[in-house]
Design brief:
Blueprint (H helix, E strand, L loop, with lengths): L5 H15 L3 H10 L4 H7 L3 H9 L1 E6 L2 E8 L2 E10 L6 E9 L2 E10 L4 E7 L2 E9 L5 E7 L2 E9 L5 E7 L2 E9 L1 H9 L1
Antiparallel strand pairs: 1-2, 2-3, 3-4, 4-5, 5-6, 6-7, 7-8, 8-9, 9-10, 10-11
């Protein structure tokens, strides 16, 4: 158990007692049917706050070259959490999102120190799935990723209004692409 509070320890012992008691079935049946008073229910079953403390305590630990604040299991991040780097682990300052077995997995947002923001999905600590990358210059890029590399459709929206449509394979631009420059199109319309 990773939650060290007294409430968590008390809740764990009450939960074990409620699970192993000989009248568990009868108590549960009367609780479902509503024949007990609310005080009796509280004695038999855990409150929602006790359950949250057992399985979802928020902790703050040193992890991966930074400070992690969020849910943990077995000493590693698990569930929702935020990692703030010490500046030693790379170009990003903050990751806020989902974790699984100590790796970024699921939806998350990565804030780089230069102002760029990545928002998308992760799998085993790699960018994986649909991704939006917002550059500090105002440009933005949408792409599909597979195991950390751009694969499939990608679109780049420049701050000046031009749009690039293309395909990627193994992280590199691949095949045909199209660049739509709105300034050229608007200038041709005006003349």
């Amino acid at each position: 158990m990773f939650c060290s509070s007294n409430a968590g320890a008390r809740a764990a012992s009450e939960w074990q007692h409620a699970r192993s008691g000989p009248t568990r079935g009868a108590e549960r049946a009367s609780w479902i049917s509503g024949s007990e008073t609310s005080d009796e229910r509280k004695k038999t079953f855990l409150s929602s706050t006790d359950m949250i403390c057992i399985y979802a305590c928020i902790v703050e630990i040193r992890y991966g070259g930074g400070t992690y604040r969020g849910r943990c299991q077995g000493g590693v991040p698990e569930g929702k959490g935020r990692l703030i780097s010490d500046g030693l682990m790379g170009a990003f300052n903050l990751y806020d999102g989902l974790w699984r077995y100590g790796k970024r997995s699921g939806l998350g947002t990565l804030f780089h120190s230069n102002g760029n923001v990545y928002h998308g999905t992760w799998r085993d600590d790699l960018i994986h799935g649909k991704v939006w990358y917002y550059f500090h210059s105002g440009d933005r890029w949408f792409a599909n990723f597979w195991k950390g590399k751009a694969n499939g459709e990608g679109r780049f929206y420049a701050k000046d209004g031009s749009i690039f449509f293309g395909h990627f394979q193994n992280g590199w631009r691949h095949g045909e692409s199209l660049l739509a420059d709105l300034h050229i199109l608007l200038n041709k319309r005006g003349t």
